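Fold this sequence, please.
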Amino acid sequence: MSPPEMLTFWIYCQTMTDSSPMSHVTTRSTVMSDHDMIDITLTINPTSASHSHINLFDTNDFRSNDFQRADFDKLNESLESVDWRDLRESCSFEEFPALFIETVHGICQANVPLKKPRTGKPFSYNWLRRKKAKA
């Protein structure tokens, strides 16, 4: 299966789920490129106000940490102070990944400031606004 066919198949599978935001997917060849054009019809309006007010900022997630403003010296000291061998031996092999992630996340929360949640309309919708303005 070629990469375009795999992408088309993946998108098709996504449309078959009940929670998929895509309702219809078509592909067609173009005369100006060797790539196929993929048209996707969405079941939601990405510019609607109801979607722009959803707060996706989760403080219990690594993505909420602002690593650009982090004090890496302090972070490295905290990571080096953990007895990783003792931590590994304190639980079963299956439980260790969750304990490892929990430990690293706790250290990051203690030493890395949180990002500030974005306000206003999402930046990712700017291309839709530009497209609408051109029309």
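The mean pLDDT is 76. Helices lie at 3-15, 49-52, 72-80, 84-89, 96-111, 126-134.
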